[in-house]
Amino acid sequence: MTKQTFLHGALILVAAGLITRLLGFINRIVVARIMGEEGMGLYMMALPTLILVTTITQFGLPVAISKRVSEAEANGDETQIKRILVISLSITGSLSLIFTAGLFLFAPIVAEYFLTDARAMAPLLAVTPIIPITAVSAVLRGYFQGRQNMKPQAISQVIEQIVRITTVAFLTKLFYPYGVQYAAAGAMIAVIIGEFVSLLYMTRQFALHKTFKWRKSWKKHIQEGKETLQQLMTIAIPTSGSRLIGSLTYFFEPILVAQSLAIAGLTAVETTKQYGGLTGYILPLLFLPTFLTHALGVSLVPSISESAAKKQFGTINYRILQAIRLSLASGGLITVIYVLFPVATLSIVYGTDQGGFLLQFMAPFFLMHYIQTPLQASLQALDLAKSAMWNTLIGAAVKFIVLAVLSSQPEFGINGVAVAMVVGSVIVTLLHLSVLVRATSFTFPFQMLFKFLTVLIITAGAGYILHEQGYFSSSPLVELLIISIVLAAVYICLLFKLKLLTKDEWHMIPGISLGKSNREHYGFFSAGKFYSEESANGT
Q1: What is the number of domains present in the chain?
Q2: Among the three residues 404, 422, 444, which one is the final residue of a domain in this structure?
Q3: Cα–Cα distance for residue pair 439/308, rounded to 1 Å
Q4: Which sign does the torsion angle of CA 350, 352, 355, 357 carry?
Q5: Is residue 460 domain-resident?
Q6: How remote is the C-alpha of 429 from its chain's centroid?
Q7: In this predicted structure, what is the pLDDT of residue 520?
Q8: How many CB atoms lie within 10 A of CB 54?
Q9: Residue-level pLDDT at 217
Q10: Is 202 inside a domain boundary?
């Protein structure tokens, strides 16, 4: 099986994430234009329930599988790898069957009494078959991540999005004449089809690359798997706790929003439209850069775990700083564009000018969100998953309090929901950073943060001047495209000038030819096999 280094694996996931994020964004635009705000509201109201159920079903096992498989492979213990898979599939398979039946039975109650819109029942019922599919996929993802082979996961993500985008328009249009709720159900069915085809590919890759006989001694591995189960649970339970808190927050959010906005005087239809606008239009734009942060988070777990076992603390600090730098760099430019051109962005992408203030307000704070995933992955890899779980719980509690207080006031309304989302995300990120500083030798990168703020201010200033001069005002689309290209050039040059992006990352990519002197100068070879303390303390 092909094994990638930290950066190589991350880059594979970044490439796949970029493709899938763009395809997913196109998919969201298509769905939004067909179903409108009301249909998007129903779709987004049903989605948190699905996220909650799949989180419980997976039980935090992907991260645990990744860590334990990586350790077993280092020891050459293929029997243990098989035992890990058998135990994991037994857990997720059993839970998926239970929760699939439960969601199917209780969907009418959830829709009418919790989501306050009985029409949400259709997309809830439509999506239930996806639960066992995602359960098996999660186990296979953890297995390939533990083997440090990111290609199957990356390709499966692209396949899933391609299948979804080719079916969603047809299905939503097919069901739309029967009502907007059935159009939302059609969008959910497209999700199921995409996930199923993706699982078929993952299963095929597993069959090709596995190094043991799958059907032999299955029952024996279950009977003798008590120790393996305990090893998995020490990681899975706190990891699952963090994700469960996030999923519960996501599940109860539309319920609390519906109740709070009702207190503020909005009808159910108005609430659905406004919440659909925020979660279906604004948040997808803000989440665009997270394909990189997710890729870094996935690759950080096995990489930092290995370095911690070898007590290579300089490598750990470098990896965390590298993840923060790359995460901030990925979101900086698009943040500037959202702040300068919120209305133009929404008009070009969605054909609406509603929500410009929310996009402009939330964008700068989401820079903190972009570094949250790598920070949480670092905590999990350093056996600080419990701290990450408590941080997530505190952030969720504060978010709900702020949401209930502000959004129930008529003068705030949906703006109160946006404020709550921002406050919760910022608090969790700051808590993650504080844990790393207290529990490890990690030092908060104040100098790096100052450099990044300098890049943002200069880039934003250049964009403001270009916009005020009106050289490209022939159309909003032309102006936004030209200014974005100019700002991208300015932004990238500043990143390299201030060493927020360095040649080190480029030379760590496998296949780049380096002479001996260059290897020694940069201090890296094969992403960690050769490492210098000077590079660890660099930018």
Answers
A1: 2
A2: 444
A3: 13
A4: positive
A5: no
A6: 14
A7: 30
A8: 24
A9: 58
A10: yes
